[in-house]
Every structure is written in C-alpha cells, then in structure tokens.
Amino acid sequence: MVRLSRATLSRIAPAARPLAEPRVTGVVHLGIGAFHRAHQAVYTERAMAATGDDRWGICGASQRSTDVADRLRPQDCLYGVRAGDEVRVVGSVRDVLAPGDDLAARLAAPETAVVTLTITEKGYRRDPPPTAIGRLVSGLRARAAADAGPLTVISCDNLPDNGATLAGLVAELCEPALLEWVGQNVRFPATMVDRIVPATTRADLDDMAARLGVIDLGAVVTEPFAQWVIEDSFAGERPAWDRAGALLVGDVRPYERMKLRLLNGGHSAIAYLSGAAHVSEAMGDAAFAGFLRRLMDDDLSPTLDGLEGFDLAEYKESLLTRFANPGLRHRVAQIAADGSQKLPQRLLDPARDRLAGGHEPRWIALVVAGWMRHVTTSRELDDPLAGRLRGDATATAAATVNRLLAIEEVFGADLRENRVFRALVTDGLERLNADGAAATLRALDAGPP
Ligand code: CS2
C-alpha cells in the first residue's frame, strides 16, 4: 500500500479529502501531538474552508522528539482523523519542526499571527532546562528584533486561567525591554479546549490504512464531540474559528472550571479508583458509575458558578455518555500520568471551595486517597515529582497522608493544615488499603452519607 501524501490524495474517497489547502503559514503550534491534530488543527481547517481565507496553515513543533516530524513530513503533513465512523484527511498542517529546528525564525515571521500551545500541565512548571516556554520567549525576542508585528499566544492546556498563567511565566523569562514589547504587542487569551483523544495505537494505524486505502502514520482517533471556548482578546488577525464552531466569549472562566473539574476531575477519578484498563470499561461498573455521579453532583457541581442558562445536568449526562463510548480505547494509564500536575486544578481547588463553605468533600478525598495509593504502589510512576511521591507502600495510611500532604506544590500549605481534609483522605486511604477500591465504593454506596 502507498503512503498518504498530496500525490496520493486522489486515491482517497472524495468525502475524506482535506477541506482546505492553505498557502501561507499563519499559525505556529508548540507540542504537535494527537490532541492538537484532532482539535485546533481541525477547527483551523474548517475555518479556512468556511471563509476561503487560506493564510492559516500550521507549522507544528515538537519539543522533545522527532517522532511526529518523522511521521508527518513524508506525508506532506497530511493525516487522517477518525471520529466514530467518519474519517477525513486534515490539510491544515503545512510543516513540522523537530526539536533542533529554528522555531524562533518561524515565530518571528511576519505571516505568523497566532501561536497555540499544547505542552501539557507539566510544561508550565518553572524548570531550569530549556522548556517550550523558553523557546517561545526566544521566538518573541526574535520577533521583537524583527519588528514583525503583533502576535496572539494561546495556551490550549488544561489549566485554570491558562492565558494569564502563560503570560506570567513568559514575563519571568523576559528582560525589561522585551517585556515592554510583549506588553504592547502580544495577547494571551484564555481558552477551554475539549476533545477526548487517546494515544494512537498500532491497531488504529492499521484501521486507518484499511479505511483510507493508503498508509497513514500520523492518524488520530477521537470522539465526535469537540468544544473550544476562546477569550475574545486577540492582538491581530486570527483564523475564523467562530465559523468552525468555536465560541468566542468575554469570560472563559465558567466553562473552564466546569470542564476541568467535571470532565478532567472525573477522568482522574477513573484513573485512580476504577481499576479498569480503559475508561469505557470503568463506566460499565455500576458501583463505579454511581460513585462518579456522586462526585460530580455532591462535590464538584456546587463549586461551579457563572453558568446561568447553561444546562449543567445535561452536560454531566453527556460526560458520562462520552466516557462510556466503547469506540474509544482510552487507557486510564494515560490519564493517571502526571497526577501531581493535574490534581490541584481538577480536584483540590474544588475541595478547597467545599471546605471553605463548611462541607466535607468526601468523594474528592477518596480520589485523592486513590492517587496516594497509586503513587505509593505503582511500579512505574510517570510523574515529574515521581522521586518525591514514591514511598513506603507498607506505611500506615496516616503516615502516607502526612508525607504526601507535605508536598506544597501539590497541596499548598492550606490543605496540609486542614484537619477535615486530612481526616477524610486518611479515612479513604485506610478503607482502600484494607478493602480495595471496588469494595470501598460498594460499601460507601450502600452506607449512610
Ligand atoms: C485527560 C485529558 O489525560 C488526561 O488527563 O483528562 O487529556 C482529557 O482527555 C482532555 O482534556 C479532554 O478534553
């Protein structure tokens, strides 16, 4: 079978061919993984198709490996996206840079008007080695020197206030003159991004080849659902993402909190308590699905505000349906990774909100206990703080809770000192250690609240 490329596009069914063929590269993306390819790249292509404005080709960059460049370059950066039974080759990506390539020159090019980032939660840590944000700042410096005009930089990672967070980290790396230029020329709008995109497997590639009739090593599999809410604050021009289904709003915060806490928080609960290998399997377990509803209804939903006129009950139902999608092989190990970077915004912030109101966030505390069990018992722990998280798996629950609550980057000083929270997590961990997760959830379900 031949490889997917512009030259072989004619072999593909017309309905599966790209919607647009950009002539200019207006977007630079840092972190061109599966999520970007199935989300922002798709919105950008649709925006070009809706308007005929073909200046929004994407130059993607990888921070650590040449893998994506090796897969996409031989295919003219074309790749297929399968959502349910619908397959389409996406044409918005024009170029992929490997780690050593000159990213700064791309960021300094006058035709570049927008930069998007998916560098994962841990990409926003203050880190001495060269980081994606460090490379972004080098690019801003080159752009300022070239006087190449305004730029909008959009963090598409699952962090609260992601725009302001990124702007703050950029500012820390800028010298005074550059900071002034950034202040006048660069905007960092906040966004909420949503689409479940499991890591592509060998079987996914085989399936894509069978559907397209050509080999595609850049294929991604996702769900039909996609959502993008963007703060309407741009420094210059942008793709017409609003014409592709994105929502441009004055305040992203209510959507962002809702998604981070309910979807991502729900995901983390699945990762640390379900015992399943894939998300959809967890939803097949009635005791676990019941627990997830309680977590959302009792501990997470009451912490959300600003959603007047929005049907939250419907949103939660749709999440449970999305999680249960049997067509997505979403490994819980992928979600369990980097918990130290994910728990704070997903579950600890809502715990704080509940505690401040005098409530006991016991379902959240049980997930935190599940995470503590995970970090003390996993043989391979995938987390930037792994060295400090690992510990004696035979220690008492109280000792483990004490040790881990002391990690201030995760729990802050406030949760460490909070006696109600400590007692809830300790109780949860004692139960998990004694009975395992399945029996604990069943007992909690049967017992009084
Ligand atoms: C997941 C997210 O891996 C994880 O931690 O919770 O990647 C999730 O699938 C996306 O945010 C969905 O939009």
What does this structure look like?
- This protein is α/β, with parallel strands linked by helices.
- It has two domains: 6-249, 3-Layer(aba) Sandwich (Rossmann fold); 253-446, N-(1-d-carboxylethyl)-l-norvaline Dehydrogenase, domain 2 (Orthogonal Bundle), CATH 1.10.1040.
- The protein contains 19 helices and twelve strands.
- It has helices spanning 34-38, 40-51, 67-72, 103-107, 132-146, 162-173, 176-185, 202-212, 253-273, 279-283, 286-300, 312-324, 332-336, 339-356, 362-377, 386-389, 397-405, 408-417, 419-446, and strands at 25-30, 57-61, 79-83, 86-90, 93-97, 114-117, 151-155, 186-187, 191-194, 220-222, 227-231, 247-249.
- Strands 5-2-1-6-7-8 form a six-stranded parallel β-sheet.
- A hairpin with a 2-residue loop joins strand 3 and strand 4 (86-90).
- Helix 9 packs across helix 15 (362-377) and helix 14 (339-356) runs parallel beside helix 18 (408-417).
- The radius of gyration is 22 Å and the shape is globular.
- The N and C termini lie far apart (59 Å).
- The model has no long low-confidence stretch (mean pLDDT 97).
- D-mannonic acid is lined by residues 158, 194-196, 263-264, 267, 334-335, 342.
- InterPro entries: 6-PGluconate_DH-like_C_sf, 6PGD_dom2, Mannitol_DH, Mannitol_DH/Oxidoreductase, Mannitol_DH_C, Mannitol_DH_CS, Mannitol_DH_N, NAD(P)-bd_dom_sf.
- GO terms for molecular function: mannitol-1-phosphate 5-dehydrogenase activity.
- One of its GO terms (biological process) is mannitol metabolic process.
